[in-house]
Design goal:
By secondary structure, the chain is an alpha+beta fold. It folds into two domains: about 180 residues, Jelly Rolls; about 110 residues, Homeodomain-like (Arc Repressor Mutant, subunit A, Orthogonal Bundle). The protein is about 45% helix and about 20% strand. It has twelve helices and ten strands. Helix 4 runs antiparallel to helix 5, helix 7 crosses helix 8 and helix 9 packs across helix 11. The longest helix is centred in the middle third of the chain and has 21 residues. The chain is globular, with a radius of gyration of 20 Å. The protein starts with 5 loop residues before the first helix and ends with a helix.
């Protein structure tokens, strides 16, 4: 029997994702790729369990067109962590967390370490019966410490293990999960707390000084009158790491610049203009985030 190569395993995994979960594109990241997909259908409960590492799975408008997008992916994180982006928003979910991803809009999921998660298809019509769904509900980390989130995890696990559910019972289970998540999602529509406003102020300050070489957690804490410890805790409450957020924001802006950069524009200069003073570090960080070098990224998007 011929041995399956790493690239063949990657292509087989992506093909299975496309067949079972909808159209996606993907790129392997640095490190050894691993990927496994299990699907389950208990009447109305349609879900996939993704076990993977070192890969970026994403949807652009190309993957979305000509495909049914009348649902949300409800992501239940089981092991490891995932970095999920949509609507210019990024969150990091840990074991026990839940988040929603809108299938009708571009998104990106990055697994930089071994991770396992369940993706439950939640019909758009069902969610919209319970609350008005907007961009603010997507890619928000619903933390594992919230009682409604814990109950949703338990209900999903128990429903998956019960293969004798009737169609009506599985529909009731799906509606129950929506009802459990509704108060958590509705809380996000309330007036932002003082801490949320402070977080938005810090994020805006990062954007305002993103090109400055001295943009570091210590400088941010000093400028906002916080201790460094409080700053780290504020970002941790959102599932983020402040230094990583700054680096990823810079890399995203570099990527945007590369998409419109001319062929003779120096890559080191682009990185430098967004705060990367060391070209080797810039190139390595860019490859880790996007799976290709800055030069290759520019070629692909010309």
């Amino acid at each position: 029997m011929a041995q399956i190569t790493g690239n063949e395993q990657f292509q087989q995994w992506l093909a299975q994702i496309n067949q079972e979960c909808g159209n996606f594109a993907a790129r392997p990241l640095d490190g050894e790729f691993s990927g496994h997909l299990e699907t389950g259908y208990t009447r109305a409960l349609k879900l996939s369990t993704v076990t993977t590492a070192n890969v970026n799975l994403y949807r652009t408008r190309n993957e979305i067109k000509d495909h049914n997008d009348s649902w949300f992916y409800t992501v239940f994180q089981l092991e490891g962590q995932a970095i999920i982006e949509q609507h210019d928003r990024q969150t990091v979910i840990q074991p026990g967390d839940i988040t929603l991803v809108d299938a009708s809009r571009p998104c990106s999921i990055v697994w930089q370490q071994p991770s396992r998660q369940i993706s439950l298809l939640l019909p758009r019509s069902l969610l919209e019966q319970q609350l008005r769904v907007g961009e603010s509900h997507c890619v928000q980390r619903l933390g594992k410490n919230l009682p409604m989130v814990q109950m949703s995890h338990r209900l999903l696990q128990e429903s998956m293990s019960n293969h004798d559910l009737s169609g009506t019972e599985s529909e009731a289970a799906l509606e129950a999960i929506v009802c459990l998540l509704r108060p958590v999602l509705q809380q996000q529509d309330a007036q932002p707390s003082r801490r949320d406003r402070q977080f938005e102020k810090v994020v805006q300050m990062i954007d305002d000084h993103i090109q400055a070489e001295n943009l570091r957690p210590e400088w941010l804490a000093n400028e906002t009158g916080m201790s460094v410890r409080s700053l780290y805790r504020m970002f941790a409450d959102k599932g983020l790491v402040v230094a990583q957020y700054i680096k990823n924001r810079r890399l995203d802006l570099c990527a945007r610049a590369l998409r419109s950069a001319s062929e003779d524009e120096k890559l080191a200069g682009i990185g430098f203009s967004w705060g990367f003073t060391d070209h080797s570090h810039f190139s390595t960080a860019f490859r880790q985030r996007f799976g290709v070098s800055p030069g290759e990224y520019r070629k692909r998007h010309r």
